[in-house]
Amino acid sequence: GKVLLTGGTGFIASHVLDYLLDHGFDVVVTARSDEKGQRIVKSADQSVGKKVSYVVVADIAKEGAFDDAVQSDPPFDFVIHTASPYQLHFDNPVADCLDPAIKGTTGILKSIKAFAPTVKRVVITSSSAAILSPPNHRKVYDESSWSDVTWDLAMNPQHTYRASKKFAEKAAWDFLATAQPNFDLATINNTYTFGPVPRSLADPSNLNTSNRRIFDLVKGHMREAIQPTAPVFTFVDVRDVALAHVRAMTVPEAGGKRFYVVGGFFSNPKLAGIIRANFPALEGRLPVEGDDDFPADHWAFDNSRSKEVLGIEYTGLEKSVVDTVESILRFEE
Ligand code: NDP
């Protein structure tokens, strides 16, 4: 089979690419420039039988941006769409985040419908942000839940990113319902993701957002004052997220479903404790020992669909953190 994978430079996409190649798929990644595309191809495992190439899509928010990229010879069987802005702050919420997230999603679906009739399924990287409604939490979250974030709130930079994920995913399901394309859809609603940084990463200043918390601990940025983990945080390992994408693509029953992909809870004191126990040399950079700062009766998650349909066996926090730290320390060598 042949797969188009968007956002090839990304943290999550780099692991999806590894899994796709390991499962024997031919992969074309999209990147915003030739320089970035070449870097991905170079860093991918180029051993016999593993094939990856790239195509440039400079601006995913532009009308018809994916019209050329979805056409390939031989043609694509699947598309995995991960490209979307993920930062803590956006100067211009609409232009910098909401447009690329939402128009990027509807745009690629339109291009597939118009120009790639062989595509059977599309998997979109949505987010737990499209599920959770802080601070009005449910008791237990699962795939039946949609974030209550509004378009008005999206104009507040603090809420822009999570709103972009909700509105982009919603637009995708709406497109499926109204345009009735040949392909079906599955979404991966993964939570805050830890794991080894991409091999193709040039330097840690380009580190993806969700690994930055571990990066800050490793670099001593939280030594004096550990940020509170208020109110409650969940994590998942990037390799579980990558496998979920591949399974969501290949398992027939995954079509038409969202998957809440979440491995467990974490707190910053817990992260510091794991680093302390596994990397004694980093002791001088770590904050003093502390307890979990969670309220006692916090909300819960139900990830059973991801286990039953996709067969995900979740990686524990310790392994995820240790492997992330090792990948960050490589930059100090
Ligand atoms: P990265 O920042 O590492 O990857 C983002 C990818 O999207 C990069 O390839 C980036 O390209 C591309 N991208 C961002 N903005 C644009 C744009 N305007 N036009 C074209 N491409 C763009 O983050 P992640 O790997 O963490 O994120 C990948 C996906 O996973 C996103 O959809 C994100 O919302 C989702 N997600 C992430 C979670 C996490 O905790 N990490 C949790 C839940 C969902 P470039 O390198 O050129 O900037």
TrEMBL record:
Q: Indicate the secretion signal residues.
A: none
Note the InterPro entries from the entry: Epimerase_deHydtase (IPR001509), NAD(P)-bd_dom_sf (IPR036291), NAD(P)_dehydrat-like (IPR050425)
Say if the entry is tagged with keyword DNA-binding.
Answer: no
Q: Where is the NAD-dependent epimerase/dehydratase domain?
A: 3-263
Q: Which positions, given as ranges, span the membrane?
A: none
Q: Which Pfam families match?
A: Epimerase
Q: What is the top-level taxon of the source organism?
A: Eukaryota
| Keywords of the record | Oxidoreductase
Q: Does the keyword Oxidoreductase apply?
A: yes
Entry's Gene Ontology molecular function annotations: oxidoreductase activity, acting on the CH-OH group of donors, NAD or NADP as acceptor
**Which protein family is named in the record?**
Belongs to the NAD(P)-dependent epimerase/dehydratase family. Dihydroflavonol-4-reductase subfamily.
Output the PANTHER family linked to this UniProt entry: NAD DEPENDENT EPIMERASE/DEHYDRATASE (PTHR10366), STEROL-4-ALPHA-CARBOXYLATE 3-DEHYDROGENASE, DECARBOXYLATING (PTHR10366:SF564)
Q: What is this protein called?
A: NAD-dependent epimerase/dehydratase domain-containing protein
